[in-house]
Inverse folding.
């Protein structure tokens, strides 16, 4: 490949190649760098230098490179850019779900204890109440799929694992991945958001190489300049920063302009719900659920059997009501792929925009199994946006962040989702 690395990038390449070829290498090599520092380009060059080929689920040869990311959308973006990638979840785990027979057995046992409680002696009753609480806790989580480490994973045959967008990988998943004993090259950006719970397992220690120089083309970008200011905690001035990048006040932008401005990214879930309601109405859609007239819909969970990933936008057509909890529709992905057949969708996430109900999913979990989970996608949270990029982005700054560092990470992550156009509203 044609690539003229800077001295810092060249040193990074030498360090990675040397690490991989050492027989006593550490299992993980951390290549960190801020937006615009060239991590992805360096990685491609290293893999070519090592003579390794990309593997995928359809590969029949072992000894290549497996690419993975935390989110389905990040893996999809990597695949679009020429490196076939999977989510870490799908790469190393298999799913185990409770069978209907197991659920029925637990419910029957719980019911029997509850019915017989009043006839029990005091000592028996205390024991039965303990059993009842245990079974109630079991039923509360029985609908949640359990992820078990897959000892038949393709990872067993890989020569190298490359993880991108690793800031959201927590300690438990990292430990499971490391258990395969394969060398792992992780690409991280310490300026990005950590996992929702806990710290990033790969980004909470010092990197082996930290790229601090922004390459020339990226350095000319107003988006990268503003991202750097956000990361450093510097105030970003109002006004135009080039012909495509602005900072404005919220009251200067109408909902109709939000619709035309690009993907809206906010901080808080309550803000997301509010913005989706306002923008949906501005677009002329008044129904509680999609009607198949061009609404903006986002997937909330992976459905690998259908080629749908968490964070992917879809279009729905020929929408039909199928009852209190579901509707059906035909579906086209953001890549223009038409999914065969009519698919069924869960209504609950849309209902929550109108009437939030914290018990909804615990109540609906049986009936919603197998249904595609989607929601309005006019506005999404920054956590949902990680791993994705859009040509134009509107950052709706709702003040998320308990500390100055949290604020800086949030704003930096949101800004770096933009490729060409950016508007920051506060």
């Amino acid at each position: 490949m044609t690539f003229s690395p800077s001295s810092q990038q060249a040193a990074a390449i030498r360090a990675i190649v040397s690490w991989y070829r050492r027989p006593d290498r550490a299992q993980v090599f951390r290549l960190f760098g801020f937006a615009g520092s060239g991590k992805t380009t360096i990685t491609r060059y290293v893999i070519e230098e090592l003579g390794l080929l990309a593997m995928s689920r359809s590969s029949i040869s072992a000894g290549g490179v497996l690419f993975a990311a935390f989110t389905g959308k990040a893996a999809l973006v990597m695949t679009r850019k020429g490196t076939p990638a999977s989510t870490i979840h799908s790469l190393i785990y298999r799913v185990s779900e409770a069978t209907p027979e197991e659920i029925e057995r637990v419910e029957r046992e719980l019911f029997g204890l509850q019915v017989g409680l009043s006839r029990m002696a005091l000592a028996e009753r205390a024991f039965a109440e303990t059993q009842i609480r245990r079974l109630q806790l079991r039923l509360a989580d029985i609908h949640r799929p359990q992820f078990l480490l897959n000892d038949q994973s393709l990872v067993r045959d890989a020569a190298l694992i490359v993880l991108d967008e690793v800031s959201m990988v927590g300690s438990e998943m990292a430990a499971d991945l490391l258990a395969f004993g394969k060398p792992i090259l992780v690409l991280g950006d310490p300026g990005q958001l950590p996992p929702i719970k806990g710290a990033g397992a790969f980004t909470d220690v010092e990197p082996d190489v930290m790229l601090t120089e922004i390459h020339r083309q990226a350095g000319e970008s107003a988006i990268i300049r503003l991202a750097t200011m956000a990361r450093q905690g510097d105030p970003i001035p109002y006004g135009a920063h080039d012909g495509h990048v602005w900072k404005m006040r919220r009251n200067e932008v109408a909902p109709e302009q939000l619709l035309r401005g690009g993907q809206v990214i906010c901080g808080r879930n309550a803000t997301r719900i509010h913005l989706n309601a306002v923008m949906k109405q501005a677009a002329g859609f008044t129904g509680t659920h999609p009607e198949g007239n061009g609404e903006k819909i986002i997937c909330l969970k992976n459905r690998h059997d259908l080629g749908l990933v968490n964070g992917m936008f879809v279009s729905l057509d020929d929408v039909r009501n199928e009852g209190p909890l579901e509707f059906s529709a035909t579906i086209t992905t953001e890549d223009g792929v038409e999914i065969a057949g009519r698919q069924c969708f869960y209504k609950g996430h849309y209902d929550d925009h109108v009437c939030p109900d914290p018990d909804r999913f615990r109540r609906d979990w049986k009936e919603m199994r197998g249904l595609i989970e989607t929601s309005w996608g006019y506005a999404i949270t920054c956590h949902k946006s990680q791993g994705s990029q859009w040509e134009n982005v509107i950052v709706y700054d709702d003040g998320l962040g308990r500390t100055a560092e949290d604020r800086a990470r949030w704003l930096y992550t949101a800004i770096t989702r933009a490729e060409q156009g950016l508007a920051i509203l506060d």
Summary: The chain has a mean pLDDT of 88. The chain is about 35% helix and 25% strand. Residues 17 and 331 are 44 Å apart (CA to CA).
